[in-house]
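Researcher: Structure prediction, please.
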Amino acid sequence: MIKKFLNSTDRFLCDNVKEIFEKVEGKHRSNKVSVNISQELKNFEANPLTCVIGCDTKFETNIKVQVKLMLGIFFVAIPLFGFLALTFILGLAYSYAFVFTFIVAMLATSRIDEIAKRYVSTRTLELIK
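Model: Predicted structure follows.
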């Protein structure tokens, strides 16, 4: 059951990371900004969530901010509302909702490193072909 949950979470994260990369890449191409995709992929693989203003390129910053937004919406906000509703219905303390949301967020964040490596290896193979 947990393995199935992790596989579906990984698939969801990988699909969203791919969409984010394609969207940001298309946006930069339409603005005629040159981007070294292989270098950006290496930077993303090394630090998928760490964003240093001034040191990262605009491309890298856009990707990392959008990945954080995606994680925040799907793995913090939605579970928090769901757990709050569940604790309200069951008459439990609301602190349970925050604890469960924290656990979900930590699981998703821990998986993003694996997703970054998987996406970078897949995309690197596409660039070579």
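Model: The longest helix spans residues 95-128.
Researcher: Thanks, that helps.
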